């Protein structure tokens, strides 16, 4: 008599199905293991990598009260777009005062130029009087010499000679006075020319000061320096700000994005500038991005830290260091725009 089967038909069916499923899983795991092993054999990979791009602060170059804020968080902006306005009334008053001082100095320069012309003409007149005084002195000197000779021959009286001598002395004094008057007029012209140089220097100073005030007025309108996206907004209308204060951040979209992949020091021996790389972002695991290695750090990341480790100060424990590798993201604008600064990515570089 046959022994009855210990398993029913249903149990046998479940067993077979389970075996097939287990076998399929085993095959899948085997294939996955082979692919993973092959990938590790052919590529250097790391998940210690982040997307980077230039995030620059917006810094105030002028102090005062904010009268209007014209951007919101995460707002795209174009180069030249106005971001915020600062109260410019005080700066415009200073500019107006400097403009008035400049106009006054320019008017003084014109008056002085007219005065110089007048003084030069007066000096020319006085110079002409020198020739007249010389001629008069020459005539009086001849009279004096002639009367001295006449007195010697008793053809003239002593009184007449004394009169002629007095006229001769007066002519000499007149010539001296005219000469000194001319020299004084020349000095006045030179003084006026020197004053003109002083006023010209003052005009240049005021012009430079005016340009400075114009800059101060222009600094009250803060604009975007390039195309980008605004970051977090921390300011509001009516807030008092100081010169050099950070008012926000803007993400620069005019420059390339890059990935900083921190590879182990044992992984970079076959990497060179210009090698291609592939990576996936945690936010887009099914999308493969491409890039090109543009630089390798000249030092390990720990060497650039605020307090670099000094292994000579205590017990030494060897730790594998990491070398930052900079990879420029390539591809279409649409693909690149998906990546944001700070995103974690998994990078793979083919071994040579």
Describe the structure in brief.
With 352 residues, the chain is an alpha+beta fold. The protein has 4 helices and 15 strands.
Inertia-based shape: rod-shaped
Integer-rounded radius of gyration: 48 Å
In the CATH hierarchy, the third-tier topology of the largest domain is known as Helix Hairpins
Strand content is 15-25%
User: Per CATH, which architecture of the largest domain?
Assistant: Orthogonal Bundle
Order of adjacent strands in the largest pleated sheet: 1-15-12-13-14-11-2
Low-confidence stretches: none
Number of strands: 15
SS-based class:
alpha+beta
Domain tally: 2
Tally the helices.
4
Average pLDDT rating:
86
CATH class placement of the largest domain: Mainly Alpha
Secondary structure: helix percent: 40-55%
N-C termini distance? 72 Å
Largest sheet, described in full?
A: 7 strands, antiparallel
Helix and strand succession?
HEEEEEEHHEEEEEEEEHE
Subcellular location: Membrane
Membrane topology: Single-pass membrane protein
Domain CusB-like beta-barrel: 258-300
Keywords: Coiled coil, Membrane, Transmembrane, Transmembrane helix
Q: Which key features would you list for this structure?
A:
352 residues; alpha+beta; Helix Hairpins; Elongation Factor Tu (Ef-tu), domain 3; 2 domains; seven-stranded antiparallel sheet; four-stranded antiparallel sheet; 4 helices; 23% strand; rod-shaped
């Amino acid at each position: 008599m046959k022994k009855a089967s210990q398993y029913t038909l249903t149990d046998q069916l479940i067993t077979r199905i389970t075996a097939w499923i287990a076998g399929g899983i085993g095959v899948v795991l085997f294939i996955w293991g082979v692919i993973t092993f092959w990938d590790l054999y052919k590529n250097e990979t790391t998940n210690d990598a982040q997307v980077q791009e230039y995030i620059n602060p917006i810094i105030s170059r002028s102090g005062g009260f904010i009268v209007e804020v014209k951007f919101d968080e995460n707002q795209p902006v174009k180069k030249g777009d106005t971001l915020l306005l600062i109260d410019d009334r005080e700066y415009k008053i200073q500019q107006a005062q400097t403009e008035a001082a400049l106009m006054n100095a320019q008017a003084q320069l014109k008056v002085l130029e007219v005065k110089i012309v007048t003084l030069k003409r007066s000096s020319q007149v006085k110079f002409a009087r020198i020739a007249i005084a010389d001629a008069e002195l020459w005539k009086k000197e001849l009279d004096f010499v002639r009367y001295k000779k006449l007195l010697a021959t008793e053809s003239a009286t002593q009184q007449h000679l004394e009169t002629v001598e007095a006229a001769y002395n007066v002519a000499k004094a007149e010539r001296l006075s005219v000469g000194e008057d001319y020299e004084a007029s020349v000095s006045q012209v030179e003084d006026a020319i020197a004053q003109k140089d002083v006023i010209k220097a003052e005009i240049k100073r005021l012009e430079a000061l005016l340009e400075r005030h114009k800059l101060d007025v222009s600094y009250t309108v803060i604009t975007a320096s390039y195309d980008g996206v605004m970051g977090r907004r921390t300011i509001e209308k009516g807030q008092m700000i100081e010169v050099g204060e950070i008012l926000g951040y803007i993400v620069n979209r005019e420059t390339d994005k890059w990935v900083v992949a921190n590879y182990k020091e044992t992984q970079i021996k076959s990497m060179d500038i210009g090698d291609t790389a592939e990576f996936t972002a945690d936010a887009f695991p099914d999308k493969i991005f491409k890039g090109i290695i543009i630089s390798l750090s000249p030092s390990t990341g720990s060497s650039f830290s605020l307090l670099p480790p000094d292994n000579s100060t205590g017990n030494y424990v060897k730790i594998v260091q990491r070398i930052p590798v900079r990879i420029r993201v390539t591809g279409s604008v649409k693909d690149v725009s998906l990546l944001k600064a700070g995103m974690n990515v998994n990078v793979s570089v083919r071994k040579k």
